[in-house]
Amino acid sequence: MNAKVEKLVPQAVRDNQITIILFVILLVLTAILAPVFFNIQNILNVARQASVTGVVAVGMTFVILTGGIDLSVGSILAVVGVCFAMMIKQNVPIPLAMIISMLIGVVIGLCNGIGITFFGIQAFIMTLATMAIGEGVALLLSDGTPVSCMVDSNILNLIGNGNVAGIPGPLIIFAVSALISGVVLRYLTFGRFVYGIGGSLEAARLSGVKTTRILLIVYAISGLCAAIAGLITTARLFVGHPTAGGFIMLDSIAAVVIGGTSLMGGRGSIAGTVAGVLLLAMVANLLNLLGVSPFHQEIVKGAIIIVAVLFTAPGLKQRILQQWADL
Questions:
Q1: Fewest CB within 10 angstroms: 72, 91, 161, 304, which?
Q2: Distance (Å, rounded) from C-alpha 323 to C-alpha 25?
Q3: Where are the domains positioned within the chain?
Q4: 14-26+40-311 domain in CATH 1.10.3470?
Q5: At 168, which helix (H) or strand (E)?
């Protein structure tokens, strides 16, 4: 009977049971405490706001699945946003400015990958250094002030504040990036290599996997996703802000972890990341509707991360019993 049930339940659901349960509990609490949340306009606003974090979290999922981490995504978002705004001010055609901006993200991601693979720098240290450099570059280019780019452009309106058939443009970008990434990780050889590297880098290398190439591509993907998020942010605000990526790194990692992806690598999914992004967005919006201060919101967010990680960690009960016996 259990086997039949397992066949009927999609793998993505089985892999993210805890996240889905938390999501359902949150929906019930929201319906009781703040029914105004289900106003269609509010839902669309939440989706639009969550999309920036979501796009970054998609790229972060690739990195964390390999057992790595990318702390530079916020800086990439800021640098790209400032560069994009400056190019628009210089009357660079917007499509060309977008391509150059995305290439900047890819190049920074490749720099991270090169430092990690060729020079053996730990991912945490390499991306931390890139984060610091990126913050400095963004402030230097902008003189520490926001770069305005008020122009009338259908492309900017679409990716920033526009809609397609009532669906926010940023949400469409998030959905497409998540769908493509989900297919890549689940059905393509590249995706299997990503999981394999996360399971054991040395075993993957001995199996003939071009681990260096895969890691370079993974960090380039993370840089590209952060760059796309930078374009969305600039298009929404009509300004390139040198500190725009302030909390995006923490939020994206939180979404990935809440979605069930292991920080040790080798386990997780894009579907879980999407659920994590939506869960965090719902919590933030619910707390706003209830009038909870931003300071308390950060405490709640941290508690949710801990709870989600505890419930998704394999062998938690055995670990607690073992540690208790070792006291």
A1: 91
A2: 31
A3: 14-26+40-311
A4: yes
A5: strand 167-168
